[in-house]
Structures are given as structure tokens and as C-alpha cells.
Predict the 3D structure of the following.
Amino acid sequence: MKKLKETIKLILSNAYIRRTRRIFGKYWYSAISSTYLLSVPASVLNPFTFMREQRAVMAGKASYYNELTRLQNKSMVGLRRNIHRLEKALIMKPRRRVFAKDYITETVEWYAGVVEKVNNGNKHDDGELVWAYSVLNEYFKVIDTNEEPFKTAKGIFESITYRPLEDNQKPFIQPKAKNLPTYDQLAMLSENRR
């Protein structure tokens, strides 16, 4: 095997072969990268190119779906993701009149599950709980809750007994930063870091 590797390296190090590979590669990869119709079959011909990346993506997806409804963790990935989505929609300008219709009930049910877990003496990230409450509370203030599924979700949310100590926390509204560096200061910093 070692001898075979050395032979291949010797052949590929030949100047004529390197130049041929460069020319072929330039035209081949330019052609197949121009459209999905060509790039997908070309990547199937060499499935080992991104094998680690593909496996990592699949492992990440498996982990996400395994953790999605697991309440015994200190942080719940499904609740965190949906609260983040709500938060982004709340700060959007202009804000949509209706948003989160497809996941608001699920989010409130997860939130209720986490609160129930905490009420039963289990641990959960307090910051996540306060954050979720603040975002959901603001969401139900700004959304029209007269139609479904908003009406049901608001009913579930209002029936939850948990109220954080700081009720007026709005993490999605960030104050304007003061004393930011000027462009010249950043340019000088980047010059000095070289």
C-alpha cells in the first residue's frame, strides 16, 4: 500500500500531468458548477468528497429531533428555537400582522411543559424561562388573538401560573450602543493587528 501511494505521488508530481490536471479541472469544475443539473450527478460520482460533512449534518439533525421534546434537559431545544423565531418576528420592520401561526400552539405547550417540570422541583435554565415568558407575553400583546390557533395558544399561556420576578424584561429590544469606535479607530486597530 505504501509503495502504491509513493508511485501515485510520483506520477502526479510530473509537471506535464499537473498541468493537464489543472487545465482539465478548470474546465470540468467550471462546467459542472454552472448548474445544479450537472453538479448533483457529479457529486454523486464521488460520494466520499463530503462524507464527514454529510455525516455531521445527519448527526446534528438526529440530535435535534431526539432533543426536540426532551423535557428533562436544562434547556429545551424546541422551545428555545421557537422562542427565537418569535423574537425575530417581533423585531421585524414592518412587522407582519399575523405570524407564527404554524408553531405558536406547539411553543406554548412546550413552555407549559417546562413550567410544569419546574413546578415539580426539576431544574431548568431560569434565563430561558424568563426569556420565553417575556417573548410570549409580548407576542400575545401585539397579535390579534381572536382567531385560531392564537386563541387556543393564548388560553394555554394565560392558564400557566409561572410569572417571573422581572415581568417587564424585553430582551429583543436592544438599546443603542454608546461610545462605538469610529471608522478611523477600527482601521487603525486593524492596521496595528497585522
